[in-house]
Write a structure and sequence with these properties.
Elements lengths: L12 E6 L5 E6 L3 E8 L4 E8 H10 L1 H11 L4
Antiparallel strand pairs: 1-2, 3-4
Helix pairs in contact: 1-2
């Protein structure tokens, strides 16, 4: 499975390592992802999602049900 957040769609970015002599080599900035289980009381079930830590803060703020609804409307979840 790729390193993409299932709620926000965040994925790796590309940039450069820059040495003291200003030599540049390509590198990747991966998203900070965590595999986490969530309980959905409406469905009385558990789901496992790979989410970014910023998405976890959003889930803590607005709740898992609202976050899933928002992700579905943006097209990240099926």
């Amino acid at each position: 499975m790729s390193r993409v957040c299932e709620l926000t769609g965040k994925k790796a970015m590309v940039g450069n390592n820059v040495s003291h002599a200003l030599n540049r080599t390509k590198r990747k900035f991966n998203a900070n992802l965590v595999k986490k289980r969530f309980y959905i009381p409406e469905e009385d079930s558990w789901i496992t999602l790979k989410v970014s830590t910023s998405a976890l803060k959003t889930i803590n703020k607005i709740g898992i049900s609202a976050a899933l609804k928002d992700a579905k409307s943006k097209g990240f979840l099926k």
